[in-house]
Amino acid sequence: MTLQTRIHASRRSPTVLVAGGAGFIGSHLCDALLQRGSMVICLDNLFTGTTDNIRPLLNHPNFRFIEHDVRDSIEIEGEIDRIYSLACPASPRHYQVDPVGTMKTCVLGSINLLELARQKGSRILQASTSEVYGDPEVHPQPESYLGNVNPVGPRACYDEGKRAAETLMFDYRRMHGTEIKVARIFNTYGPRMLENDGRVVSNFIVQALRGEPITIYGQGTQTRSFCFVDDLVRGLQLLMESPASVSGPCNLGNPHEVTIEAIAREVLACTESASPLRFEPLPKDDPRRRKPVIDAAEKILGWRPRVALKDGLQATIAYFALRLAGESPTLVP
Ligand code: NAD
Ligand code: UDP
């Protein structure tokens, strides 16, 4: 009996485990899954996540929070139909604090979640990243591009960890027939990013709102393609529920490519801030450009981003404005 049939036959709500569910993307995913009627188990060690992100959910009858580190083996009673593997710090500032710990999170965390998936017969989706392409020599990046990662640089703990996690997913599929999905997520932004996590969108917005200099690393000519979190969460769910034969890897990102200086100017315009631009050294191994080819997501999932950069920035700015004013914006599902 297939998983889908099993869920249907039992007529119960699917139980979904979101590892990393108290983080930025994970908490939005928990909201969306609860809205669809799923039972949601959020597992997180609160390294970069916070209970603030899931506070409105803590009393929800279909929501359960487990504080746990994915590097330790995971035992959960009952059936689990779906596992989203998002538990990993995503910002360079955070994943570089303890690089060996990051690598262990990617490798041991994936093995522990895959073992759980094997025991429970769950389908599992790995939150991989555009960082598997490193500093790309092919532009834009299709899934077939094998990447250009420096294996010994300061970003390698994350990039190589995520590459190893993809390997483990496909090895479990080959060895055990585990139903896997691999999403290669490109830069994502939105409410609930941490104001101090060092990522470009949160940095620029917080700096603009405080009237502090906007810190552009390098000349600001490097590019990224920014996807609003609601679009990304919709893509993740579509990939998870795609036919069992679809494993990916599948790029999920917004193909609208902008330079870092352009995003700084957009944030200044949206916030009407007079903050000056301040140019600082470019970190080592910082990728020069990044833009997804999303033909596979469009064709197989019928997915493409809907939220324009300006609109997504306005929503994110509104969130940070409340936070900086000392209010805690509760985004009730
Ligand atoms: P985030 O740091 O906000 O969320 C990660 C969550 O995982 C946090 O709640 C954190 O506490 C938890 N976590 C970290 N290590 C853990 C561990 N060992 N055990 C249990 N929980 C742990 O980051 P995010 O932006 O929400 O990213 C979520 C996932 O998506 C990550 O796997 C990340 O690599 C991936 N991703 C994100 C982006 C992006 O632009 N945000 C891009 C590509 C991939
Ligand atoms: N960046 C910047 N100023 C900042 C933070 C980041 O110019 O205050 C640059 C960074 O060097 C990179 C881009 O913005 O070129 C995106 O950085 P982020 O850390 O958000 O994501 P990643 O590099 O992992 O794609």
Describe this structure in words.
- Pfam families: Epimerase.
- The structure is a single chain.
- The longest helix has 22 residues.
- Helices cover 39% and strands 16% of the residues.
- Helix 3 links the parallel strand 2 and strand 3.
- With 333 residues, the protein is an alpha/beta fold.
- The chain is globular.
- Bound molecules: nicotinamide-adenine-dinucleotide and uridine-5'-diphosphate.
- The site of nicotinamide-adenine-dinucleotide (NAD) has 27 residues, from helix 2, helix 5 and strand 5.
- Total beta-strand segments: 13
Assembly type of the chains comes to: single chain
Give the averaged pLDDT, no decimals.
94
How many helices? The count is 11
Structural class: alpha/beta
| Strand/helix succession | HEHEHEEHHEHEEHEEEHEEHEHH
Radius of gyration: 19 Å
The biggest beta sheet is recorded as: 7 strands, parallel
Strand content: 15-25%
Biggest β-sheet: strands ordered side by side in the sheet: 3-2-1-4-5-6-11
First-to-last CA distance: 33 Å
Helix-residue proportion: 25-40%
Unreliable spans are 1-9
Shape: globular
Could you tell me which ligands this complex binds, including any ions or cofactors? nicotinamide-adenine-dinucleotide, uridine-5'-diphosphate
Key terms for this structure?
333 residues, alpha/beta, 7-stranded parallel β-sheet, two-stranded parallel ribbon, 11 helices, binds uridine-5'-diphosphate, Epimerase_deHydtase, UXS-like, EC 4.1.1.35
